[in-house]
Every structure is written in C-alpha cells, then in structure tokens.
C-alpha cells in the first residue's frame, strides 16, 4: 500500500497531478480544493494517498492531511458513495466542513457536491453522524512535508509537524470536554467561544461522551436565524 508520496510536481491535469519521485512519475487524483492548495509545477509537494485497486486499474487518491484521508475512507464506506463522489464532497467542503455538516445532520451541504443527490447525501449523514465527532477529535495536523515518506523522494520545505495518532475517545467528564475543545479548535473556532459552548453543552449532561458533546456544542455555535 502506498500511503504517502513526496517529490516534485511535474504537471497538473484535470482532477489529477503527476508527482515525480526520483524519476518515477505517479499520477495522483485530487479534489479541486486540494488542487488549489498545491504549489507550482516544479516545486516540492507531498500528499497522503489511498490506493484504489480494481481488476483493470490502480488509482492513487491524494490528500493534504491524514485527517482528510480518513474522511475519504469513511465516505467511500457508505453504500453508493464511490471515489468520485467522495472526492467531490471533499472538494466542496474539505474534511473539516464535511465533518461539521455530518455532525449537524446538514445533508444539504453534502448534496452541494457535484453528482451527489439527496438520497446519497442523507445516507452519508445517517451512516456517519455517530462517527463524525470521533474523527473531528483526532486532531491530526496538516501533512508534515519533511517527514519520512512511504515512497521516498526529495525533502520538501518548509518542515511542519508530524501526524498524531488518534487518542481513544473519552466516555464522559473532563476528558470528553477536553477532546471536544480540541475538535472545535481544529474546526477553527476561537478558544473562548469553543469553551463557552462546551461548558454549556456539558452542563446539560455532565456525563455525555465526546461525540454527543461535540454535536451539542456545534449546535450551540451554529448561526442563528
């Protein structure tokens, strides 16, 4: 399994790029959002990858972080959601946006992805809503482009932080509140508003688990009106 590729961006195509790793070119399919965030041709690039194996084809799909790769794998686990639909969802929402929409039951946001109809969007929300908070709490940072690659290439720069393994979800109490705060921080909420929402959600049910706490806090933080 090829889990990560680091090299030089050789060219950009329609929905895919070619990454040169020491003279070997790898075609990697990426979402529109990921494509927009890639460097220029000839520059260093690194992507986490997932390999799709079929009888007649092998395809690599690329992601800027382990967190987004995990969302891709969850999305394709839903019946009727293939790689194309999963990449479309991530292209519109990104990993964080997809997690927020699923946790809040906002299937309309999922439906905004090209080629994703209402039935599939509702199925995505229904099947993944209980898994969303745990993935959101992983706290996996953006890919460390200087870390050792599964397919070793050049050393891109600048260096970043390495990926962190997800911690087991807490069942309730202070541990659940800490994980909920971390998840909201990963979604871009300010510490003050995140803490206020988590405290209010925890007050309504002090022993709720992390998943329920994140869902409740997101509802409190959702725009009113």
Properties at a glance:
225 residues; DNA polymerase, domain 1; 16% strand; five-stranded mixed β-barrel; 9 helices; OB fold (Dihydrolipoamide Acetyltransferase, E2P); Helicase, Ruva Protein, domain 3
Summarize the structure.
With 225 residues, the chain is an alpha+beta fold. It is built from nine helices and five strands; from the N terminus they run βββαββαααααααα. The chain folds into three domains: 4-63, Nucleic acid-binding proteins (OB fold (Dihydrolipoamide Acetyltransferase, E2P), Beta Barrel); 66-136, 5' to 3' exonuclease, C-terminal subdomain (DNA polymerase, domain 1), CATH 1.10.150.20; 173-221, Helicase, Ruva Protein, domain 3.
Provide an overview of this structure:
This is Holliday junction branch migration complex subunit RuvA. Residues 1-64 are annotated as: Domain I. Pfam families: HHH_5 (PF14520), RuvA_C (PF07499), RuvA_N (PF01330). The protein has 225 residues and is of the alpha+beta class. The chain has a five-stranded mixed β-barrel with strand order 1-2-3-5-4. The chain has nine helices and five strands, in the order βββαββαααααααα. α7 runs antiparallel to α8 (191-204). The protein is globular, with a radius of gyration of 18 Å. It has three domains: 4-63, OB fold (Dihydrolipoamide Acetyltransferase, E2P); 66-136, DNA polymerase, domain 1; 173-221, Helicase, Ruva Protein, domain 3 (Orthogonal Bundle), CATH 1.10.8.
């Amino acid at each position: 399994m090829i889990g990560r590729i680091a090299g030089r961006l050789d060219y950009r195509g329609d929905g895919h790029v070619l990454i040169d790793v020491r003279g070997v070119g790898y075609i990697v399919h990426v979402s529109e959002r990921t494509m927009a965030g890639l460097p220029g041709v000839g520059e260093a690039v690194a992507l986490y990858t997932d390999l799709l194996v079929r009888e007649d084809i092998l395809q690599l799909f690329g992601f800027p972080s382990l967190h987004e790769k995990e969302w891709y794998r969850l999305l394709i686990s839903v019946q009727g959601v293939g790689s194309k639909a999963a990449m479309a969802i991530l292209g519109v929402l990104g990993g964080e946006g997809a997690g927020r929409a699923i946790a809040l039951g906002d299937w309309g946001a999922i439906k905004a992805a090209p080629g994703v109809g209402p039935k599939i969007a509702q199925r995505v929300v229904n099947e993944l809503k209980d898994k969303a908070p745990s993935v959101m709490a992983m706290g996996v940072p953006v890919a460390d482009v200087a870390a050792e690659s599964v397919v070793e290439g050049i050393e891109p720069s600048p260096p970043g932080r390495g990926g962190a393994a997800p911690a087991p979800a807490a069942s309730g109490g202070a541990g659940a509140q800490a994980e909920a705060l971390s998840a909201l921080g990963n979604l871009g909420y300010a510490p003050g508003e995140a803490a206020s929402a988590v405290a209010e959600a925890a007050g309504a049910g002090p022993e709720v688990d992390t998943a329920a706490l994140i869902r409740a806090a997101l509802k409190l933080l959702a725009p009113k009106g």
